[in-house]
Amino acid sequence: MYDPTISIGAILCVLLSVLLAHRLAKRRDIEKEYNSSVKEFKNLLVPFLRELEHPDANPAVLVTQHFPEHDEAARKLINVLPSSKSKKFQEKWAEYQFLYQQKKSMGIAIAIAAEVDDLSKANNVEYLYEQNAKRRTQAFVIVNETVQVL
């Protein structure tokens, strides 16, 4: 004989299985897209961070030169970030944007002049290297903290 209770239960079980499989596939696709975007973003920043580590690197030039492509990648990344990471990432990214605006406002002077805290010491070569290292470290820390959020 035909038992409608068993048939309805079997149909519900199949439907729940299909729904679960669909949700898992959707979640896997979202994770894959997130991981791909994060990898692309990090791959873009790694050469920049390596350049910043070089003692002769001019952080102002590097930041102004690389920021536009970093910003474009960050905007794409924000679209796939989970909300838990999005806010923290945007806060850290705002610090990098502020650093970029500072360096950009210096204009052409960044290519020919050293950025120093005390102009009276600007004729001391060791002081200039110290100031350059300070600026490189500042930029490195800001970008590295942004990447660490991911």
Your description of this structure?
The chain is mainly alpha-helical and 150 residues long. Helices cover 81% and strands 0% of the residues. The longest helix has 50 residues, at 4-53. It starts with a helix and ends with a helix. The relative contact order is 0.12.
Secondary structure blueprint with pairings:
Layout: H1 4-53, H2 59-78, H3 83-105, H4 109-112, H5 125-149
Helix pairs in contact: 1-2, 1-5, 2-3, 3-5
Keywords:
150 residues; mainly alpha; 81% helix; rod-shaped
- Whole-Å distance between the termini? 59 Å
By secondary-structure content and strand pairing, the structural class works out as: mainly alpha
Shape: rod-shaped
Order of helices and strands: HHHHH
- Detail the poorly predicted runs: none
Helical residue percent?
Answer: over 70%
How many distinct helices? Answer: 5
Strand percentage: under 5%
Mean pLDDT over all positions: 87
Cα gyration radius (Å): 25 Å
Number of strands: 0
Quick rundown:
By secondary structure, the protein is an all-alpha fold.
